[in-house]
Amino acid sequence: YFMIPELRKSVLTFPVEKLSNDIKHKDTVTFMSELRRLFGFLMLSNQKWVNPTKLLSAIVDNSGTAIHIGSQEDVSEFNDLFLRRIETGLTLLPEEESDNTKNLIKDLFTGRQVKYFSYLGEDGKVIDQSPEETSFTSIILQVGGDRRDLYLSLI
Questions:
Q1: CA-CA to 139 of 20 to 30 Å: which in 17, 19, 42, 95?
Q2: What secondary structure does DSSP assign to 76-89, as a single string?
Q3: pTM of the predicted model over 0.90
Q4: What torsion do the CA atoms of 85, 91, 94, 96 make, to the nearest 10 degrees?
């Protein structure tokens, strides 16, 4: 996520100091503060690695329970949770500071899928139904066999 300029800017400019007294959103502000700290280290430090422990311990699920790091988790579920935490943090920005960041996560990480259905009617004519549109944040691809890489899996 650090390599996405819009997201990096939004995280690095997150006003932790202004929101640090917000008891209602304490978990979110802590998460955004640790993410900002991690991004800052990645940007300004000459270290070859950065310890993400404080950020990982600041991640909570929807009920406010800390995520147990090291347990077997589905990567797409964790990714959705991680992105939701960032999205929640960005919605805390005051209107004058939001600069279109309220929809940033949706704009960057959500795709649209449109399904078109058609079938043969009793008279043999093709009947089209209106398209059905759904949103998605992850795609499951079969890689292997004749689909040797991701590009072939998308076909």
A1: 42
A2: HHHHHHHHHHHHHH
A3: no
A4: 120
